[in-house]
Fold this protein.
Amino acid sequence: MNWSYLIKQWFGTLFLGTIILQLIMFQTIQNTKQICGVLAIFPISLLFGLIFSTPTYILYSFIYRFLRFKNINSNFAKIILILFVVFNVNITTNIIKGSMMNNITISYSLSAILSGLIFKLNFNNDYN
């Protein structure tokens, strides 16, 4: 199977979500020393995003495969996959809890929607 959509959406969500989170934090921090700290945690944010998103994308791969073999319309499948990611971002942030979880939920949900819509899902080009 062609897993490029899954990989593009996963890493698109991670990078875009981290950037959006940094922008949100940049807007809410008044102290310039803290702003430098926010920029320094960018690689750490990517790493934790990768770790915490791995279970979601393992399940996502099963849903992707199921939708592909059920010959579901690509546009409808995209909506299902995007909603699955947004739902799991919310579950993950509710499990973790913390002072930044609202910002994290917003940034990664928004990035999942954007990256899911930007990349093309075409089951017709998949191969077994």
